[in-house]
């Protein structure tokens, strides 16, 4: 029974009527980010300290753990190219980062979609554009989301060796 997702149907229909594809779930007065649709949420940005960071909300009992979430975290930590964090992040921080040009990309990750980019967020009457790939305007995903997708697909299809998969002869 899909009861854990039943409450999301009406807001999803309302979002679609307004031209959006998904709902960004927040909680509390500070609009702490939770999930996008039924996916785990990832924000790639330059944080307030000026560090390049990939951040996802922590597993605190309100967000379901997932293999894809864990895979994204392990892959990106393994790259060693930017800080990877599991911590709280809210819409005020996202709005400010967008206004200041520090937002690099946002995407959801989950079993069915693997990785799906977010191109804009509507919050308190304003649309915040989320960059995809400035070096390739026709791109449908940002460079980190695209790289994660390719890495996961390469592993899934056995195109690259991985401790996550075992070849069977």
Automatic annotation (TrEMBL):
Listed EC numbers: 2.6.1.42
Keywords: Aminotransferase, Transferase
Protein name: Branched-chain-amino-acid transaminase bat2
Organism: Coemansia linderi
Gene from which this protein is expressed: BAT2_1
């Amino acid at each position: 029974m899909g009861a854990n997702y039943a409450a999301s149907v009406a807001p999803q229909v309302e979002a679609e009527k307004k031209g959006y594809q998904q709902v960004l779930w927040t909680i509390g007065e500070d609009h702490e980010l939770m999930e996008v649709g039924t996916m785990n949420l990832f924000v790639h940005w330059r944080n307030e300290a000026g560090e390049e960071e990939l951040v996802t909300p922590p597993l605190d009992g309100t967000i379901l753990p997932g293999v894809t979430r864990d895979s994204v975290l392990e892959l990106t930590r393994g790259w060693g190219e930017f800080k990877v964090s599991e911590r709280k992040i809210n819409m005020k921080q996202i709005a400010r980062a967008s206004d200041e040009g520090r937002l690099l990309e946002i995407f959801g990750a989950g079993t069915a979609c693997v990785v799906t980019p977010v191109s804009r967020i509507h919050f308190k009457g304003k649309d915040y554009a989320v960059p995809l790939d400035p070096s390739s305007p026709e791109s449908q995903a940002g460079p980190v989301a695209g790289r994660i997708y390719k890495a996961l697909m390469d592993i899934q299809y056995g195109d690259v060796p991985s401790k996550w998969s075992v070849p069977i002869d």
